[in-house]
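User: Show me a protein chain along with its predicted structure.
Assistant: Here is one chain, sequence first, then structure tokens.
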Amino acid sequence: MGDIEIRDDRAAGRLEAVADGEVAGRIEYFVLDAPERALVPVHTVVEPAHEGQGIAGSLARELYALAAREDSAVAPLCPYVVTWAARHPDQAPVAGPELIRAAKAWLAAHPGRF
């Protein structure tokens, strides 16, 4: 496998890992504006041919780095990102309960989005 390029397709709500010209994995997310600006990851998917290569972890790391560059929080609803964040507290600031509640409410109000 060659190098992984991670790109943000904000319009589609996907952070994609591209390997050898194909999307090897992605985090699907939305942007929450209140009570504070946050990226909200909902699903992490790695294509079967690329499993076990650290792609999901690279995507989670880049999601938190992207949020930091944008001065945004991350309110993880994706179980993988929640677990990754718990294992990397130095890279993944914890979202407060109000922010998590707001993210869950947004997701419930947009059932066809994910």
